[in-house]
């Protein structure tokens, strides 16, 4: 009897100080629905969509629905703690819903804030909160619509990020190719200019001398060889 009393007291203390007792291991399908907020069909569909999302974005994705939050611990803080416990340092997103207060929170791993625009992530959080308090929808519909909204938004953001990364890589490749071509052209031009400079120096150093010419004697006159003289006389002279 004392053992039963001790166990009961331990449970009371855990609920009073530690908040809701969630499974030590994360749910296999990514959904922990303690309040039966989802129908079996919706639960199955969302579990499948979360599976595809995890495979596409290479990250963890979780949904929790509870009806109790410990005093002094906000739902946002509880979502951060649970995401960290379930995913560690891996990229992950967790959407938490508290049925008792009709409140919600989304916790993104730090890597999400590094990959994507903070403004877009905050907008996702705000849109999710508005959807989960929409009185026109049933709770089952609210959770399903909110989940699909942030799944679709993150898919689009990841697609844009990958395309931008590819453009940067192509730009860097084109720049590298252009740089190689410019450097090769500059090297070729420098080689041509160097060769021209050397040829110019060689031509400047050259000296030209007139060759020695041996002129033979003509008619016994010294230095007469090769000399032509023209004498003009009067046409009437004899």
Q: What's the gist of this structure?
A:
The chain has 238 residues and is an alpha/beta fold. It contains 6 helices and 4 strands.
Furnish the topology, listing elements before pairings:
Layout lengths: L1 H17 L12 E3 L6 H18 L2 E7 L8 H13 L4 E7 L4 E6 L1 H6 L2 H15 L6 H67 L33
Parallel strand pairs: 1-2, 2-3
Antiparallel strand pairs: 3-4
Helix pairs in contact: 2-6, 5-6
Describe the protein's architecture and organization.
The protein has a domain of 139 residues: Diaminopimelate Epimerase, Chain A, domain 1. It contains 6 helices and 4 strands. β3 and β4 form a beta hairpin. The N terminus is likely disordered. The chain has a 4-stranded mixed sheet with strand order 1-2-3-4, sandwiched between helices. The protein is α/β, with parallel strands linked by helices.
């Amino acid at each position: 009897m004392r053992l039963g009393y001790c166990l009961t007291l331990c449970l009371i203390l855990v609920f009073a100080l530690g908040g809701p007792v969630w499974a030590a291991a994360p749910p296999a399908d990514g959904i922990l629905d303690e309040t039966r907020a989802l129908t079996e069909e919706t639960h199955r569909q969302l579990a499948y969509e979360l599976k595809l999302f995890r495979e596409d974005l290479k990250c963890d994705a979780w949904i929790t629905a509870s009806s109790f939050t410990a005093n002094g611990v906000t739902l946002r803080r509880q979502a951060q703690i649970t995401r960290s416990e379930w995913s560690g340092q891996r990229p992950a997103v967790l959407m938490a819903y508290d049925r008792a207060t009709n409140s919600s929170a989304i916790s993104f791993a730090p890597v999400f804030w590094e990959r994507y625009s903070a403004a877009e992530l905050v907008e996702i959080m705000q849109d999710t909160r508005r959807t989960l308090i929409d009185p026109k929808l049933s709770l089952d519909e609210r959770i399903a619509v909110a989940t699909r909204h942030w799944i679709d938004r993150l898919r689009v953001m990841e697609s844009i990020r990958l395309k931008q990364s590819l453009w940067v890589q192509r730009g860097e490749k084109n720049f590298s190719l252009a740089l190689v071509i410019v450097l090769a052209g500059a090297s070729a031009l420098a080689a041509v200019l160097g060769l021209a400079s050397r040829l110019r120096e060689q031509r400047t150093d050259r000296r030209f001398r007139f060759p020695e010419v041996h002129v033979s004697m003509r008619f016994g006159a010294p230095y007469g060889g090769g000399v032509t003289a023209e004498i003009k006389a009067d046409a009437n002279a004899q």
